[in-house]
Amino acid sequence: MPQTDVPYHKARKRFGQNFLHDHGVIGEIVASINPKQGEHLVEIGPGQGALTVDVLERAGGLDVVELDRDLIPTLLLRFGLNPNFHIHEADALKFDFASLKTDDRPLRIIGNLPYNISTPLIFHLLSFESMIQDMHFMLQKEVVQRLAAAPGEKHYGRLGIMAQYYCKVDYLFTVGPGAFKPAPKVDSAIVRMTPYHELPHPCKDILKLEQIVRDAFSQRRKTIRNTLKQHLKPEELEKLVIDPAARPEVLTLADFVRIADYLIDRQH
Fold first, then answer.
1. Based on the structure, what is the number of domains in the chain?
2. Which one of 131, 161, 195 terminates a domain?
């Protein structure tokens, strides 16, 4: 259905809504997702259905999670006659994505995510990584840079390390503010996150790894000797072949896993 047939809905600041309207960008996003007939697609925050229409047509079915109840009549008007279109009125931050897994098909999750919840939502989704094939998100450009950053880069930190523990992360392309109504004040970007079948650097205790990474970057201008002093002595870091004078942004995921595993072994 053409975009002109969509009823007017004023974007709400409290939901962080910015609606896609650029058909060229929409086509590029859908091509990147490449939905296929019979796959189990899940869209977070479909809004007025800019992505929904093409994804539903290609996949044949779609689950959508939408918090704004005023958008649901519009979505039902446009897509409700399709028996394989299902709306879940819920907050994605609290939604149990495992409840959608009713057969052996993995979930393919997509969405134009509100900037104000993108980081906690990604951490929430990573807890379901074993049942997810891939995730394609529109996010604030800086968040995608953080997700995809490598050691030594300005945006490298906790978000990227924990995302890359579970997933291969690919920065696909940038989207300017003009693709949205209302136009945000920052650039956006599309990211693809593909959970690993086998973790490249499995750790013995994920909670310990999260704690070490969080503490290491709590004062990112300080050295590892200082930010992790409550956990290890400098000589223990040297024993792990990690320079105590290094700053956290130069340590790799494998380095952080080695520290976390050492602490678990020492504890036992």
1. 2
2. 195
